[in-house]
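Problem 12. The chain below contains 459 residues. Write out its predicted structure in token notation.
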Amino acid sequence: MSHKRIPKRKAAIAAGGIAALGAAAILLPNANASQDGASGGAAAAPKTLKAADAPDLASQLAGLLGDAFAGSYYDADQQQLVVNVVPGDNNNVIVQAKKAGVAVREVDNSIRELEAGAQTLKSEATIPGTAWAVDPRTNKILVTADSTVTGDKWDTLESTVDSLGSGMATIKKSAGTFKTFLSGGDAIFGGGARCSAGFNVTAGDGSPAFLTAGHCGVAEEAWADAEGGEPIATVDQATFPGEGDFALVKYDDPATEAPSDVNTGDGQTVAISQAADAEVGLAVIRMGSTTGLSDGEVLGLDATVNYPEGTVTGLIQTNVCAEPGDSGGSLFTQDGLAIGLTSGGSGDCTVGGETFFQPVTTALAAVGATLGAGDAAGGEEAGAGEEAGAGEEAGAGEEAGAGEEAGVGEEVGGEEAGAGQEVGGEEAGAGEEVGGEEAGAGEDTGTGVEDGSGLTETH
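Solution.
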């Protein structure tokens, strides 16, 4: 086993300019959506849509539909955004949603009702080894209990779920126990702890840093890139448990470079173009120092997980596996969107499991950092640009987003339709190849990744 160092350290975990994803009207990106169906006032057939564009469109529709909006998810097979609505006496909301080019599904439970149910679970059934999140595909709260929830604890959980009423929640058992994926081994080291670095960022004061799991930052303050090595980075702030699981760790050397990519093994990298919110149904890839690459999909948002150390809220629930040492590692999409940081879960990558992730967008906002390398990645042009999120040079300019002409126009967005010239720029810094499922994986290889920074272990 050897540890490779590069004289001018390059922390090649991930980076990129965070994009401004908002827009004043419902905008369907021209480059990514089919133009089937009517273009006028009549309800059009659902448009095909790239998964990366689904969260932004869902967010805009949530604002447009108000209380009638009951969640959404991405149908990967049909390449469509499915929006749940509770129409009540106002069938116009269905017409409005269809004009946005989405598939519309009428459901019984409103978001308010589902959120109220989750609040009841929090107040009456906060039991270690349990978790819950709203599942828009079933229009119910999905409650999960690990193998430690037995006897009186199970009875309490079951009775609380029953009290919510028929059709509001379902319970499932999960193999193993819910735990954070902290371990003692390689990748980034803090004392006897091992975690994985997530994404490079620029801290609010302009210094280079990276994001990792908050429970890693709480466990140790100084982190090295080799077992027993000298520390290369120091925790600046960390949150765990509570409202998230994230930490900002600043490199001790202010000259550290932070390239805009994730190493995926065998010399392969995925360029990271921007940070994005998750959407249920989104296909995602996780990179970690123990198990390398693993993929799956998003199952739920705003999940609450009751770890032995305490309750963490606001997480992304997935069916991606992970193991101890993968904590803090990056969750991203094949086309280069930074989605999350590995928090914890149950199971392993032999029998399978489910893993929860800290949303990157929430972590960035909380610590006051921006995704990417700041001036090293192109300064203002690569950071935010005027509105495009990655600047003209990063490929997210006016032509990459929605454009003035893209979208539903006045029929849905009213006078505001067509405002906001850029939605995000999916094409910026994408990179189709991730190195395959086998890249960097395997028990015998540790990380299997040759990282330009020395932050990961090579063999």
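Discussion. The two ends are 5 Å apart (CA to CA). Students who got a different answer should revisit the alignment rule from Section 12.3.
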